[in-house]
UniProtKB/TrEMBL annotation:
Name the UniProt record assigns to this protein: Hydrophobic protein
Superkingdom, taxonomy of origin: Bacteria
Statement: the UniProt record of this protein carries the keyword Membrane: yes
Parts of the chain that traverse the membrane: 26-44
Entry keywords, A to Z: Membrane, Transmembrane, Transmembrane helix
Length: 55
């Protein structure tokens, strides 16, 4: 009974880690797209050296 519980616990942990990694990939893609949009918006300013973000 204990080995079965350990296998189920391991499967649950691996499933949770896989879901978290997939969510982190989506967040990374969204951040990358926003970063690229920043270059496009900055290039459209007419040559001014201003930042499109505040930090």
């Amino acid at each position: 009974m204990v080995p079965l519980l350990l296998v189920l616990l391991l499967a649950l942990i691996l499933f949770g880690a896989g879901f978290a990694l997939k969510a982190l990939w989506w967040i990374a893609i969204i951040v990358f797209v926003v970063w690229l949009l920043g270059f496009v918006l900055r290039a459209g300013d007419g040559g001014r050296k201003s930042r499109w973000y505040r930090w």
